[in-house]
Design goal:
- The complex is a heterodimer.
- Chain A is 0% helix and 55% strand.
- Chain A has no helices and 11 strands.
- In chain A, strands 2, 4, 5, 6, 9, 10 and 11 form a 7-stranded mixed sheet that branches.
- By secondary structure, chain B is mainly beta.
- Chain B is built from no helices and 11 strands.
- Chain B has strands at 4-6, 11-14, 19-25, 32-38, 44-50, 55-57, 60-65, 70-75, 84-94, 97-102, 106-111.
- In chain B, strands 2, 4, 5, 9, 10 and 11 form a 6-stranded mixed sheet that branches. Chain B has a 5-stranded antiparallel sheet with strand order 1-3-8-7-6, with no helix packed on it.
- In chain B, strand 6 and strand 7 (60-65) form a beta hairpin.
- Classes of the chains: A mainly beta, B mainly beta.
- Chain A binds chain B through residues 32, 34, 36, 42-44, 46, 49, 51, 57, 88, 90, 94, 97, 102-103, 105-112, 114, and chain B through 31-32, 34, 41-46, 49, 51, 87, 89, 91, 93, 96-105.
């Protein structure tokens, strides 16, 4: 079965500090991978998605970046955090486009990282 | 108009009641539809995929109305454990990538 891991679970960082959040998926190959942010009491905002190694699409221009160095690894980074970067960061995977079929857009989320920028 | 709209609620209903909520979407080319459940301070979890003919899973029924561009979720015989936020998700796919839009969610609270 497939599992998705995220770490750390919680993080408190000062403004201006760097950020690195990691997400790994097990039990599947060539997944689509996603980073979302959820501000307190708000909906999910898609930040980045990736359909393959080194392929990153950005949905929202901001001071965050993403990388996919391996098939099942997705990293979210920032060089300098802002107060507005606080939120609940969620990584998700779905079956990749090569798989096809009606289930290819079903997303499965990791446990999330709760980031507080002070 | 938002791409995906949900009534934020909260819906406060007694245990055992039937409750339904809708979600409207603006892109008529949307292809995939889902309902997720999110508990407080937890990640969303897939509840149901919504197929064109509608589908049922135990106490939960999801339906799609393409003409009016909405999906619905019906919960019968509600349980205390059904208390959560229900997220509507709509996907319009292009080329080899997917664009997935989450609604802001509908809060449901089941009271004893």
């Amino acid at each position: 079965s497939q599992t998705i891991h995220q770490w750390p679970a919680t993080l408190v960082q000062p403004v201006g500090s760097p950020l690195s959040l990691e997400c790994t998926v097990e039990g599947t190959s060539n997944p689509n991978l996603y980073w979302y942010r959820q501000a307190a009491g708000r909906g999910l905002q898609l930040l980045f998605y990736s359909v393959g190694i080194g392929q990153i699409s950005s949905e929202v221009p901001q001071n965050l970046s993403a990388s996919r160095p391996q098939d099942r690894q997705f990293i979210l980074s920032s060089k300098k955090l802002l107060l507005s970067d606080s939120g609940f960061y969620l990584c998700a995977w779905s079956v990749g486009p090569l798989a096809g079929g009606p289930r290819m857009n079903e997303q499965f989320f990791g446990p999330g990282t709760r980031l507080t920028v002070l | 108009r938002k791409e995906v709209e949900q009534d934020p609620g909260p819906f406060n209903v007694p245990e055992g009641a039937t409750v339904a909520f809708n979600c409207t979407y603006s892109n008529s080319a949307s292809q995939s539809f889902f309902w997720y459940r999110q508990d407080c301070r937890k990640e969303p979890k897939l509840l149901m995929s919504v197929y064109s003919s509608g589908n049922e899973d135990g106490r939960f029924t999801a339906q799609l109305n393409r003409a009016s561009q909405y999906i619905s979720l019906l919960i019968r015989d509600s349980k205390l454990s059904d208390s959560a936020t229900y997220l509507c998700v709509v996907n319009s796919q292009y080329s080899s990538a997917s664009k997935i839009i989450f609604g802001s969610g509908t809060r449901l609270s089941i009271r004893p």
